[in-house]
Write a structure and sequence with these properties.
Helix content is 79%, strand content 0%. With 97 residues, the protein is an all-alpha fold.
C-alpha cells in the first residue's frame, strides 16, 4: 500500500487535497466517499484472499495509520530522519502481531 502511494507522491497529495475539498463541498464528498469506500472494500477482499493476518477492522486501522503517516511524510515530517519503510515496519509490528 505504501509503496504504491510512494511511487508517485503527487497522487496521495492530490487525494489529500480532494479530501479537504470534500469537507467543504457535499458533492465532492459524495463522489469521493463512494470511491474510497469501494476501494477499501476491494482492499479488504484482496487482503482476505492473500492470507495476510488481520481482518476488516484491522485493515481499517492500518488505512487510518498509513494515511496519517503518508500525510506526515509528504508534507512536514515529525521525524525527517526516519524512513517510510522503518515507520511502516514499526506500525505493522504494533498493529498486526
Amino acid at each position: 500500500m505504501v509503496r504504491r502511494l510512494s511511487a508517485d507522491p503527487h497522487v496521495p497529495l492530490a487525494l489529500f487535497e480532494l479530501r479537504l475539498e470534500a469537507a467543504r463541498r457535499p458533492a465532492v464528498a459524495e463522489a469521493l466517499g463512494a470511491w474510497r469506500r469501494r476501494a477499501f472494500e476491494a482492499d479488504v477482499a484482496s487482503w482476505a484472499s492473500s492470507g495476510l493476518p488481520g481482518d476488516r477492522p484491522d485493515l481499517l486501522v492500518l488505512h487510518h495509520a498509513v494515511d496519517g503517516m503518508m500525510l506526515d511524510h509528504l508534507t512536514v515530517p515529525l521525524d525527517p530522519e526516519r524512513s517510510v519503510d522503518d515507520a511502516i515496519e514499526a506500525l505493522v509490528d504494533r498493529l498486526l502481531p
